[in-house]
Fold each of these.
Amino acid sequence: MDLDDELATGVMLSPTRNMSRDGEIVRRWMEMVLGDKFSGDLPAALYSGELLCDLVNKLYKALGMKSQISPVRGAENRTSGCEADADALSNVLEYLRACEVLGVSRQDLFQPDDLLQAKGMEKVYSNVLSLQAVAVSLSNRRSIDERSSMINASDWSPMLEQSVFIDEDDLEVDYLDIESPDAVTLMQQSRWQRLLFEYEHQLQRKEESDRAGDSSATEGLGPLAHGIWRTEERIRGLLLCDDHEFGAVPDELHGKLWMLASGAQMEMMKHRGQYELLLAAELESTDSTRQIDVDLHRTVADDDKEQWTEEKSRMMRRILVAYSFYNPNLGYCQGLNYIVARSLQFLDEEEAFYLLIQIVKLVPDDYYTTMLGLAVDQHVFADLVRLQYPEVSERLTELGGSGMELSLACAL
């Protein structure tokens, strides 16, 4: 049974509720979603708040949210009753904040003492069933835009303030034919600029909060963390669908989006001067530098050489050599040159270096050491194509291929 089925399992009750029946439904639903049976009675199982936080984390994961609650564990094992109560209260408050974020109305929340002192277990059960209803609604909203629109955006946005971007009303009224391709392109570009500006501003605020040691807004259910998630989901949704208002990402903004989404922009800001120090470290020839020099002039395809220059080749060499010193365990492996070459079409030298760092961090080790992981995934992909599109697989075989080439073609 997948999570969507589990979310939908349970009986939606009438306004006149039976508490014992509510408790049984809550128990069954939570056990199915969490994949574990509860021991003892339900109020005792819920007391510490840990299971409620685990439930929210399960829902967050199903919805693609990066944030997770970190409940205080082991409250029941505390020697001091006061400590256990404080930990349980902290967990319950985290859970209630999560309910609001997910869209449970305030009237369906409960007071901590309703659970911690068992003063109102019917309110606790009613709350969990309300969360169930919200979860079912969210699970039925298949598009990213639909899911992220469940929650009201934050009150403040840099896009609401005066900015350097072109006002679309001015574009329409003053001098542009709104139906012309140029006007449409200009407005789409302005919309992407605004969206990436907001994204960058959110990331900068997060970095400032992290430096100040204030994680309340930037981790878990903090408003800034959730705002960043919403923006990333919005961008992901625009990339996955043919949105006529935004259109494709303008060429000049590809690099900006890569830097922000990968975290390379913030890494570069935190490590000013690091790249220059790594460049100064090249004192002698190494295995990595020798292989880089071999690959340097066979990286760019003939069709792309019109947009390529010798200066870009020198930039690519500096980036790859600097990276080999930055990550001596890897040094250099073939394939990094292609990443850097593509990056330099949209980024300057230092930006491309930090983007390379972030990309390699995202890739499993066996993709660039033994390459076993890459080979396995290529074979799996080829088998899937053979099963779903046998005519494509047969054509590749006729041409002398093995099918593994498909993954390379699709990646490019």
Amino acid sequence: MTTYTLTTGTDTIVGTSNDDTINGTAATLNSADQIDGGAGYDTLALFGAGSFDLSALAQFLGMEEVDLVNLTGGQSNLTLANGSDLTINVDNEAFGGGAVTLGDGAVTLNLGASANYTVNTSIGTAAINSTQAGTYNLSSGAATISSFGGTFNLSSGAATITSGNGGIFNLSTGTATLDVTGKPSFFNGPDTFTLSTGTADIHYHGGGNSGSAAVYVSSGKATVDFTGSQNFNNINIGDIATFNYDDVFTASAISGRNSIGIGGSGAFDLRQIHLNGSWALALSPDQSVEIDQASVSHLTSISGGTSDHLHTADATLDLTHTTVVNGADIASTNASGTTFTVADAATGFHVLGGAGDDTLVASGFAFTAGQRAAIFAGTSVDVIQDSSGTYNGLSTLSVSTSGAGITNGSGVLGVGHVVTITVLMGRVATVDTSNGSPTMTLNDGATAGYVGGSGTDKLTFTYTVGPGDSSPDLAITAFSLNGGTIKVSDVRVPLAKVWRGDCSLLINVFANRWRGVWRRQRRRITRCGRTTRAGARRSGTAGDRLRSL
């Protein structure tokens, strides 16, 4: 092996057929130098601080390796010539940093423990290895990088990056495959991924101690997998107008650490997003978001303002594992209506219903009477089911009975007693009985028939207690048009639904024998069957009691 040393003058070196080494410094590497390594494996060793521009030499060829060695301090900068396929080893023990600018050749760059380096790639291919953080400005060439964090500015090329300590990733039009171990601490700053029109495949894992990752997606296709992440993980959809619905987002298994924020205003279809795991959804103002059961099953919470509106066309929407907070509302676009199931009253207050027959089901709890009244007054929900019973939005304006012994709305109803139920419709209702008359089915097996009220906002039904009828808590269990029709404000109302009406009349044809039993089963008179959603109001004698004597 032959060793050559550059001088401060003009040098022309032609290596042997063996493995040769050429030593130089910033002071001895001159633009007029001509270097030809010849055959064999030849190394150019550059020592100390300074700038080494191999692209400016009169000739540079035949070399296989460049070593940049700086033991004294200061920056060491290296610029490669085009047409050079090289292995570059940087040993900057002074940690002064510097810059390495690559050409169009195939380069392996080993930075080792040299810190604070900036690498600028070109149209060539680069394999870059570092155990420290750095700044990487990539171009149209292909790059494979293994680093311990840093800033990565990508361009139109293809990049495969493995980072052991998070980083800042700015993507562009190219293709990026990122395998990133998150920073272990929040105090080191968040790991950020800013995407553009290119394609990104991001696998983010590790971290801990309240670190965080933020992915800003754009119109390019993104696959983001937070499996194994111990940090807080955030997907930010900057503008719903340019969002790519082919994106795939996978949450980590740690509850409460995965969120999706939707920016911009206008329409957004959450049904088309490919979600895995559980996410918290946050909306920006003035958004109209389509949801369904599949998308909601991945949401632990939905947060939005009063200008945000969620819509579903599903017949059922289970929100028992999804809380809705702040001002966003949820409406049904299903013509037949939607059954909404909620696990708390706060979420129930966000359900508006729609044009169909909508039911709000409380799972594992009961609304208060005031809460039910507020929901019926302010929404299009038709029926509320909770642990205390089934309710609807119309009021019983009055409940009267006939028979001896009935005073102040109290008494046992026996055979022959007549129960008259007057229902407040909220608007003028027109009843057509030419093909049949509406009826109410009661829970004692009997039927209350329509008797009048067409042309007013009050419809009247009567029921005569017959032999064998018995109920401690008389309730409406079904409503049938029975061939008739009811129109409210020129809207034909198809009323074929089942509910517990809570009229709470006590029916007992064996009153003398069982009066002690019935005396212990007093109930309140409340709403007796909602027959339309139009302007329902609660008034009248709700709250009167009937009891056995």
Amino acid sequence: MTEAKAGTYALLLKLDKQERITVGKLGTFDFPAGYYLYVGSALGPGGLRARLAHHRRDSKSSSQSSSRQKGKKFHWHIDYLLQRAQLVEVWSAASEERLECKWSEVARELSGAQVPLRGFGSSECRCPAHLIYFSARPNREQFERTLQVNLAHRRSSRTCSAPANAKQVLP
């Protein structure tokens, strides 16, 4: 895959301990320790390469992260969480099609998935959130298999509705 192309991505993050984080206008929340999967799209200039470079710079594990905290306004909800969480892995696929809602839907169907904060990363759609919480590391292979089946069938590809098993962690 050429990262300069447009596409969809998922950031797998880890919080080692519970963290109280202010997320822009959404407010201040306690995020439990565990894994978080954030789904986004990069359809604009620079595509995946530019967007993923931005997120890698902002992650807790980046040496540039602390300089971004001082006086710099954050652009996306995920920027706030990246200041405290470790970026563990990036999953991405090149595509001109906007697939982040489908990816989020599939992630919410994974075993142990919970919506930690309604509206996180989904201010431009009707999804409950584009951030999904897991107490244990989610299975990438299970995600990819489920995504392939869903995309092949195009079942509810344009809907943003939470499955019955998606629980919200934070109020």
Amino acid sequence: MKDKYTNQAQQNVSGARSNPFEELHNAFAAAEQSTPGISDVFVKELFRRVAPHVSRERRMHGIMDRLKV
């Protein structure tokens, strides 16, 4: 999916080519730098809302461990 959309980068207001995945990565990096751990909180909240049956603490820790690079 990333490769599909990377090649179809959109143009922003200034006319420069913009990569939405790079922008999202940069936004998360900046948020994580200013508030360490905020990305984990965001992903946990996302799972709680999208898949409430997965939000049990033990199961959530397993999922979060697999997501970390």
